[in-house]
Each structure stands twice: as C-alpha cells, then as structure tokens.
Specification:
The protein has 379 residues and is mainly alpha-helical. The chain is built from 18 helices and 2 strands. The protein is 69% helix and 2% strand. Strands 1-2 form a two-stranded antiparallel ribbon. The longest helix has 30 residues.
C-alpha cells in the first residue's frame, strides 16, 4: 500500500578544474593561470608543475556529494525509516473515515486506530521488501540509506518485512469483520495486491514504469474507499448498515490517489542513473526530467482544478474548496521547486518531501472539511 533533506550543490572547488578541463585551447585557459605564469610564460618547469597539480585536482569522484559522502549515520537512519512517507497510511484512512462520518455522523475509533496501526505495518512491509528486492537487482548497491545496507543483512530485513505484513494483515481482517462489510476486505486486498505486483518478483511492474498507476489505484479508489466502508457495517447489534458509494467518496479517493502518486513520481528524479543501470524503466527514464517537471505541473494544476469543479457541481461541500485551497501555496512550492531543480540530482532529492507535505496538508484539509460540513461548522 505504499510506495517514498535538503540537498547541497557540489563544492565550489570542483568547478575550477572543470573549467580548465573544458578549455578548448591553451589561450582560452591562460586567464585561469596565476599571474606569475603569465609574466614568465617561458618558465616551462613551473607550468609543468601547475599542469601536474591541475591533473590531480580535476579528478572528481562520480558520486562526490553530500548526499552520498557526507551524510551522518543519524540522517541515513532517518532516510531509511522514511517516517514522512507514513502519511500515506494516515491520509487515505482519515479521508475515508471522515467521508463516512459526513454520511452517517458516526465514527468508530477502535476500527480507525486498528486500521491505522495495520496500515503502517503494511507500508513497513512494502518499504522493507522494496529495499530487499532493489538490493537483489543491484539498483540499491550504492544507496547508503537502504535498510539492507544499513543493517548489513538481507535476511534480517526480509524477515522483518514479512513479520510486519502478517501482523498488519491480522489487523485488517479484524477491522473488516467488525465492519460486517465484505467490500472493506476485498478493496484492501486489491490495494495490497497492487503493492505486491509493484515491487515483488516475478512481477516487479515498477521496473516497467507502471508504479504510478498502481500507486494511484492502491491508495485512491481501493484504500480510501475501503476505509470509508470500514466505518459502516455493524452500527447497532441488531442492524447492519452498508454505506453507499457516493460522488463525495469517489472524488476524495481521486484526490488521495493523485497526491500519493505525485510522491512516487518525484522520487524518481534523482535516481535516473541508477535505474538505467539495472534496466528499470521509470517514467523519468522514459521521457527525461524536463518533461517530468511538466507532468508535475499538470498534476498539481489538475488537482486544484478538479477541486473547484467538484465544489461547483455540488459533489463536495463548499467548505472543502475553502480549506483545500489553503494548500495552494504548497502546491505552488512543489511545482516551482521541480521546475527549477529537475536537472540537479542533489537538490531534486527534496522534491518528494515537498510532495509529502502537500499530500498530508491536502488530505487533512479534505477530511476536516467533511467533519465541518457534517457538524455545520462554518468558517
């Protein structure tokens, strides 16, 4: 059910030898020489020594950057745990539950928190197993924040992934039984299946560039709608009430799917070289970063355009437009950051975290608007 900081540019010292290396003629490079060499051009021994130093300084390690060479172990562990990414567990659940509250005025807290813990465990399985299988293919060979590389053990990581999955699955089954609605379990099963075929052998559809459609389906139509159904079912001991499918929950699921897929899409920008090396055909490998930045622009624009369309057509309550529109500055931040830095594989690393902020903020605003609409709270 899931799929993922601040970069610093290359050291200034690197640019001096690179400009020497790119000089086409001696005359063009003389302006870079110290004044003593210009005053005594016949001093061949000095010039030779300078050229020797130039050759030594022009060697730049392929991956010399803060991202790979100067990261503390604490930051590596932070990146490996991917804590911000766990918002993708909270947002579909909270949005789906609030959509159900808008319909019924009831909220089952035990189911909500059981599903929250279970969803976090399922996402932990996805993250850990993804590191395991990427380690097997070699795509994470030089990725220091890979859990396998940090622990130094593939088997331990894989065992932890499977343990998380089975415990999480028990929680999902319990909540589905409590709801009394088979649709809850079926949709959650479909969502998990999307996650499995996304990364696990023999499918590994992420290597064929199908990660984003699978991510959209898993978190949007499947998970968000399943969590909506989970708040119906056994409302009273003598009554079983099944929630209807409405335009509100479907539009909410659409929003969740878009913002979640945007996180995955932006996580590819800084991994193009590694993906190409192992034959992983991500969307950014297919059409490049410039087109990718345009895709981000279209996605963010579509998100807010649909918001106002759904409110104007009364599919969503008016307060939804007010609260969700408050996240437009975050959407603009994502759009501008990617547009300006899509070619910088160090800085662009941060893009996915900006997308996480947008995803969480938009989801909270959407869920809050449903609660306010039900309780008739006006701003």
């Amino acid at each position: 059910m899931a799929f993922a900081t601040t970069g610093i540019g290359a050291p200034a010292a690197v640019f001096f030898p690179l400009s020497l290396q790119s000089s086409a003629t001696t005359s063009k490079s003389l302006y870079l020489l110290p004044s003593s060499y210009l005053a005594h051009p016949s001093s061949t021994s000095s010039l030779s020594r300078y050229r020797y130093r130039k050759k030594k300084t022009t060697h730049v390690p392929k991956y010399s950057s803060r991202q790979n060479d100067e990261i503390s172990r604490g930051e590596l562990i932070w990146r490996a745990t991917k804590l911000p990414i766990y918002s993708v567990a909270m947002v579909p659940l909270t949005v789906g539950s609030s959509a159900a509250y808008l319909e019924t005025g009831m909220f089952f807290s035990k189911r909500y928190f059981a599903l929250l813990v279970s969803s976090i465990l399922i996402i932990t399985w996805l993250n850990l197993s993804n590191d395991v299988y990427d380690f097997d293919t070699g795509v994470d060979k030089d990725k220091k924040e890979s859990v396998v590389n940090i622990l130094g053990s593939r088997s331990v990581t894989h065992s932890a992934a499977k343990t998380s999955f089975f415990i999480g699955l028990i929680g999902l089954i319990w909540a589905s039984v409590q709801s009394g609605d088979i649709r809850t379990f079926l949709l959650l099963t479909f969502a998990i299946f999307c996650g499995y075929v996304y990364q696990c052998p023999p499918f590994r559809l992420s290597y064929r560039g199908l990660g984003e459609p699978l991510c959209f389906a898993a978190f949007g139509p499947f998970a968000t709608t399943a969590f909506y159904f989970s708040q119906g079912g056994k409302i009273f001991s003598s009554e079983v009430f099944q929630l209807p499918i409405t335009g509100r929950v479907l539009s909410a699921a659409l929003f969740v799917g878009i913002t979640t897929s945007l996180i995955l899409f932006c996580s590819h920008f800084h991994q193009i070289e590694g993906d190409q090396a192992v034959g992983k055909i991500s969307p950014l490998v297919r059409f490049g970063t410039e087109t990718g930045s345009k895709v981000v622009k279209v996605s963010v624009t579509t998100l807010y355009s649909l918001l106002f369309v759904f409110v104007f057509t009364r599919i969503l309550p008016p307060i939804t437009a007010f609260l969700c529109a408050s996240t437009i500055p975050l959407g603009k931040l994502v759009l501008n950051f990617v547009e300006q830095n899509h070619n910088d594989k160090i800085k662009i690393f941060t893009a996915k975290y900006y997308c996480v902020r947008l995803h969480a903020a938009f989801g909270v605003a959407l869920a809050t608007s449903f609660v306010f609409a039900r309780t008739r709270i006006l701003l």
